[in-house]
Amino acid sequence: MNVFRLLCWGAVVVASPGRAWAADDDEEPEFEGVAEVEAPAREPTKRTLDEAQLTTIPGTRGDALRAIEIMPGVSRTQFASNGGPPLLRGSASGESLVLFDGAPAPLIYHFGGLTSVFNSHLLESVTLYPGNFSTRFGRASGGAVEARIRDPKSDRLHAMLELSAIDSFVLTEGPLGGSSSLALAARRSNIDFFFEALLDDDSTAVVAAPVYWDYQAILAHRFDSVNKLRVLAYGSSDAFELHLGKAANDDPALQGELGSRISFHHLQVELESRFSDRVTQQLMLSVGPSPGHGRLGTTDYDYTAWDAALRASWSLLATPWLRLDTGLDVQALAVEFRYHGPAPAPEEGVPSQGALAGGSQLLLDSTLRALRPAGFVEASIRPVPQLLFVPGVRVDYFSDQHAWTVDPRISSRFELAEGSALKAGVGRFSQPAEYWQVMEGFGNPAIKPYRTLQGSAGVQQAVGKFVRVDVDGFYKRWQNRVLGTAGGAPPTYVNGGTGTAYGLELLLDAKVTEHTRAYASYTLSRSTRRDGAGKPKRLFDRDQTHNLTLGGSFDVGYGFQVGARFRYVSGSPYSPVAGAVYDASSDTYRPLYAAINDARLPAFHQLDLRAEKLWRLGPVDLTAYLEVMNVYNAKNQEGLRYSFDYRQAAGVQGMPFFPNVGIRGAL
Amino acid sequence: MKCNVVVVGQWLGAGALLTLTSACEDALKTAQDLREARVLGVKLSTAGDEASLLPGETASVELLLAGPDGPAPARVAYELCEAAESMRGVPYCVATPFARDVVDAGSPSAYDVPDELADAARISLRGVACTSGEPALEAEDPLRWSCSGEDAPLRFSFDARLGTASFTNHHPDLVALEVTLDGVGLALEDVAAAAGCDAAVAGFDADRRLTLELRLGDDARELDETLQLSHFSTGGSFERQYSFVAPESTPFASLSFHTPASGSAVKQYLVLRDGRGGVSWASWSVCVR
Known about the structure:
The complex is a heterodimer. By secondary structure, chain A is mainly beta. Chain A has one domain (3-666): Maltoporin, Chain A (Beta Barrel). Chain A has two helices and 39 strands. Chain A has a 22-stranded antiparallel β-barrel. In chain A, a hairpin with a 2-residue loop joins strand 10 (158-164) and strand 11 (167-177). Chain A is globular. By secondary structure, chain B is an all-beta fold. In chain B, the strands form six sheets. In chain B, strands 15, 16, 18, 20, 22 and 23 form a six-stranded mixed β-sheet that branches. A five-stranded antiparallel β-sheet of chain B has the order 14-13-17-21-19, with no helix packed on it. Chain B is globular. Classes of the chains: A mainly beta, B mainly beta. At the A-B interface, strand 14, strand 15, strand 16, strand 32 and strand 38 of A face strand 1, strand 2, strand 3 and strand 12 of B. Strand 32 (577-583) of chain A pairs parallel with strand 12 (154-161) of chain B, so a sheet runs across the interface.
C-alpha cells in the first residue's frame, strides 16, 4: 500500500491518495483487527491536526480548534472577536462550517474565541478544508472544519485535572464493562474571580461576572464486529451581566443593564456499521436547544433555537477502481425570536453607523421553521493507479427560502512519484441566507441562497526525509450574495452582490522527531466584493494580503518541551471617517465615509511561547506549563475608536503581553 | 494612568461577546466639554409651541449652537422633507424638500407644513451651520454639505413625527426648572447671553469637584416619557454627558462638575429630549474665581 502522509507540527497532515481503496479515514469504523489505512484525500486541500498535536501549539492555550489558525488559508482574527467558524480563503466567518462528527456546531467558542466549547482532549483530530470540500458537506460557500471526537479509552480508568488562570477542567474515562466505555468532562472559567479588578470605573457594577462552562459525555458501545454505537451529550453556557451606572459618553442607548446568556445542549447518536470490507454505513442524529437572551442598554433580545441534524451515508467499494459514496444530510431548524432595539449591526462591508441611539426601533416577535434536506453522491474513480478523479453532486432544498440548489464538484489527484502529487478541484457551493435575513417582519422572505464557484490547484512534494512542502493556488467567485439595503430600508436585504478571492498558500513542514518539528505557513491572497451592479469593487472587511506563521516545537530532554509561534499578518482594511452628521434627535453623531475599506491598519506581528515540563510520579503524569502570548508586547492596532464627533481618532490596541500558567495531572 | 474599560456588545454575534479593550492611551475629547462650536440641539415647533407638527400649519425651526465662549454666531442652511423609511444612518428624503432656507443661528425660522403630507409621516430636517462663510446644502451626499469659510461645516439632522388624532406631543416644560451647584441656586438666563461673572452670578472656587442638581418639576414630562438630559459646559468638566429621568422616577438629576483650574466665567447648557421629538433647553452661568 502506497501511503503518502504529510505531517506538520502545528499539526498539519495532508493525506494523499493511496493506490488501493479503503474507506475514507473520516468514515472508516475503527474496529479491532482492521488494518488502518491512510485514505485518499477526496479534497484537493485537506489538512489535519492529529490528537498528539492538538493541545500544544503556542498561543492557542492548548485549544484544538484555535490551532487551525496556523494553517495557510485561515485568516487571523482579533483575539476574542469571532465566535464563529474561521475565515477561510477570503470568506466571511458565517460562510464556513465547523462540524463535530458531522453535526454543525451550535456554538464554537466561548466569549467570541477565548476557547472552544469542546474539550480538546476528547478530540481525535481536527481537519481543515479551506475550500473545495466534498459533497458530503454543504450549506456553506467557504470552507469547512471537521472535528472528530474520539472514543473513550477502554483499557482502564483514566482521569485528568487541569487548573489554569483562565479555566479549569476535569476529565474521566474508562471501561463500563463488556464492550462499552464512557468519558465525562466538564470545564468552568476562572475569569469571574478577578474580572472585577479589571474594571476601574466605579459606576460599573458587576452583577454577574463573565462565566463560561461546558460539558461532554461520550458513551461508546460495540454491539458486534459490525456495529458500533456512540451517544454524545455536550453543551455549553456563556453568561455575564453588568450594570452601567452612567451612559456611555457617546451613546445614550448604552446605559443600564448590559448582559447576555447563551447556551446550547446537544444529544448526538451515531451508529457506524461495517457490513463488509466493501460496504460501510454511518448514521448520525444530533438534536438540541440553543436558548439565549441579552440586554444592551435599551436593546434586548430573547431567542430559542432548536436544531436537528440527520446524516446517513453509505460507502461502496464497487470495483478496485471505483468507490461510491452517497448519503443524506438533513437539517431542521426552529427559531423563536424576540427583539426590541435599533436595527441590527450592518452587514460585512458596511462600516459602523455610529451610536445605537437614534434611528428606528424594531419590535420583533418572529418564528422561523426551516427544513433543509440534501442528498449527495460522489464517485472516486481511479483509471490508472496514479490518477484519481472524484466527481460528485449535491442537491439541497431550503424550505424557508423555497429554493433548490444543485452543486456539482470534481477533484483530481495525480501522483508523479513517491511523495509527489499534483491536485486540482472545481465546484459550486451554495449557502442559504442567514435566518434573520429571511425572517418575516424584519428580513426579506424572497431572499434566495447564494453561491460560490471555487477552483484550486496545487502540488505536494516531499523534500528529503523530513521536509514536506504543500503549495496551493485558489480562486473563488461569489454570485447572488446577500446585501443589506441602504439605511436598512425595506426589504432590508436583497440578493445581487458578487465577489472574488484568489491567492496562494504555502505550507512547509519539517518533522525531525515526534516532538521536534518546525513549520512555515504563508498565504498570499486578495478578497474583494461588489455590493450590487454598478457599485465599485471594494476589499473584503478581513482581506489579509500576507499571512505568515513560523513555528516550532522542541523536545529538550528531561521532560521539557518548548515551542514558539511567530505571526506577521497584513492589517485589515477599514473605512476612514470623512465627516459626521450631528443627530439632534438623540444627541449623537453619525459617521460619513467617502469610500469603503480603502485604508489598512498597520500590520500585525506577535510572538507566542510555550514551555511545559512533565514529571512522571508513579501512575500520575504531572505537567506544568507556561504560555506567554505577545512576548515582546507588540502594540498591534486592531481598529480605531473615535471621539464623539468623529474628529479625533485613536488606535484600539490588541491583546497585550499575556501569560497563562497551568498545571495538569493525568492518571 | 487610569484606564477606561470599553465594553463592546456585539449584537447577536457569537451570542454575547464581551470584549474588554484597554484604552489607557490617546484619550479623546469628551462631548460635555464645549471646546469648539457645535450644534447642541434642534427644535421644531408649532405656533402653539407643540412638538407634534400638523399639516397645513405654520411651524418653526430653532437651532441651539454654542462654542467655547458660549453663544456662537453662525449661518445655517436647512431643508425639511418627508423622510424615507430607513433604520440607520443619516436620514434622507423620499421627495423634494418642502421647505428650505438660509438663516442666522439663534432665531426661529418659520415655514409651512404642507397639507399633502401623509398621516403619521416622518419629517426629516437636514442642515449645515457655518461659523465662517456661507452654508451650501444642495447635494444629496451629506459629505458635500459645506461652508465657504475655513471652519469645518457643522452638519446636523433631526427627525420629527407629524401629529395625528392619536399622537400629540409637547416639548418638555422647563418653567419649574431649579438648578443648584454645591447647594447654591443658579439663575437661568437666555441661551444667547454670554457667560457672566458679575455680582449677581454665584461664585465658586477653582479646581473643585462640586455637585450640580437639577429639579425639573412635575410638568417637565408627559406620561411614559423618559427624558434624556444632555450637559455641556464651556469650562471645567461635567462627569458625564447624559442623565436620564425615567417615567416612574422623581424628575431630578445630579452629577458632579469639576470647576476650571483658574478663574473664568463658565456657560453651561442643558438640553432635554423626550424621545418623541420634544426638545427644550436652558442655560446659566457659573463664575469661577
